[in-house]
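Narrative of activities, Objective 1.

The group set out to show that a structural description can be obtained from nothing but a protein's sequence at a throughput compatible with the screening campaign. Below is one input-output pair from the validation batch, recorded exactly as produced.
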Amino acid sequence: MSTSNANNCPLAKIKVTKLKDCPMLTLDQVDIEKFQECSNACHHYLKHLEKKPTKYLMEFAKYALPQKWVQGVRNTILASKQGSRCFLDWKIKLKNSNALLTKTKSVCVLSNVALQAQLEANIDVDLHAKLDNINIIAVTFVDLVSKLTELDKDLREENTQMQRLIDANNAAHNVEHQKWKLLVDHLSELLRQL
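Output recorded for this entry:
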């Protein structure tokens, strides 16, 4: 997690001493991730007091976050691509961001069907090819995530094994290159002595 935002202002810190004590937020910059962290701490605190946290958190968000932050979070979800990240880590980040929108009761919240479509459309190209090869039809979100997590793990293991083979091949090539270099140097030295 970052310690400063794009303006190089320090990010707020959340201090939670006990469950029965209200979380304390330092007077520094609050970004969306920090808000989510604070939201979770407040949720646990208010749940402990048997109170609904949504109204409190939305009031906090109104003052702490920039206008249209909800649309910004949604746009971030929609623009997100797995890239080289582990599928499960990426899925959790998207799901957590969407859960944050759920707390706002916003129309920007993605349904499970939309979130599933977003994940499927933006997974890594190699992972997508693996998914296409097994031909899954009409699965639940949970089943799809489970299968993609398994396929991603397999793909990462294959890539790690391939990288080991490439590294071993490069090392062997370097050894052979050094042998030839020594032979050429030795022959050059012999020719100079003639």
